[in-house]
């Protein structure tokens, strides 16, 4: 494919440029620039089609000239995943936006893939409704959230955005517009596109469940010092059957300091020192972490559940009417090596301890403790071989616990040197899906595990 693209020559490249302008309109097609990269790979052209049929024309043009196409939404996660082998045309979905008109009272909504999620929520809120999804990426489009398999705190109670799909419309690699949904086989296909980074199809629109906005929301927060303490608290919360909408954890990194901010002899200090999670540990993060539970529902019911929860958590649990500042934010920054750890909730503490021990220092960890899915950040300055050794140690611990550690994004040198995915049991099925949906490997080639 790369050879085919490079052999176009000047006249062939000019023809592609002219055709893209004819399909999308001159203001909506151009040569790629410095900002048009996918995990470090530059795009040759950028096309912003005005609708599904124009997008299909772009794909047919790419097929005729054996060009690789990579979809892009708002670009908030364009550096996630593996670097594609080739990016000839970046297909920007920004004009594939809008919310379909549904009958009054219908608890579904069809949303264009290029629609920013916050715009969808703002529109639905005018009628007292919402999508039960809160992906952390600011400005993310619905299609980007689905294509990256991104989920936020509300996934604890309502499932991930992909779990809430009722159907999709997408473009196959040859430009055919396909509708999937309306039954188990159709939903299986629709959800197959989730997390595929645009490598199995170009999302055009999605139909999702809608629900009423809760009348009341309260956040119950409890400081925590160790991963094992988190384990005990999460077990207590789940056993209480308080129907939490989310259970989120924030454990900071930093240099260890004395284990407690309380003076010797203080009851809280004594209790913390005796907690089994302190055994054999030289120190704890430079500041306390937080375990925060979101409760939603009617005002009286939520207040009663929050008060019960405070009693169960003991310590310094507090109730707030707004989320903490770190809520719906990743612990990593641009340039960091970002990790996602997935493990049964009963083994989350083991995963965090393994990461801390391998790194030799507390590592920032944040995410859904009630699901066993958290993100972590390693400094971007770490040498690639050091990152590789940390990954090997953590994956060794997780393998015995049916867990996994994935590199979400990383500096170029790290991305080239490490295995981003680790063990992946579903690779044969993924390979079969790629061969079925994109046999020429024209959509985001190399973005999926196994170089697919």
What does this structure look like?
By secondary structure, the chain is α+β, with helices and mostly antiparallel strands. It is 32% helix and 21% strand. Helix 2 (9-24) runs antiparallel to helix 3.
Topology:
Layout: H1 2-6, H2 9-24, E1 29-31, E2 37-38, E3 41-42, E4 45-47, H3 52-64, E5 69-72, E6 89-92, E7 108-112, H4 117-125, E8 129-130, H5 142-148, H6 155-158, E9 165-171, E10 177-181, H7 184-192, E11 202-209, E12 211-212, E13 216-224, H8 227-239, E14 246-251, H9 267-274, E15 289-297, H10 299-313, E16 318-320, E17 337-342, H11 348-359, E18 365-368, E19 373-378, H12 384-399, E20 404-409, H13 412-417, H14 427-437
Parallel strand pairs: 4-6, 5-6
Antiparallel strand pairs: 1-4, 2-3, 7-11, 8-12, 9-10, 9-11, 13-15, 13-16, 14-15, 14-18, 17-19, 17-20, 18-19
Helix pairs in contact: 2-3, 8-11, 11-12
What is shown here, in short?
The chain has 452 residues and is α+β, with helices and mostly antiparallel strands. It has helices at residues 2-6, 9-24, 52-64, 117-125, 142-148, 155-158, 184-192, 227-239, 267-274, 299-313, 348-359, 384-399, 412-417, 427-437; strands spanning 29-31, 37-38, 41-42, 45-47, 69-72, 89-92, 108-112, 129-130, 165-171, 177-181, 202-209, 211-212, 216-224, 246-251, 289-297, 318-320, 337-342, 365-368, 373-378, 404-409.
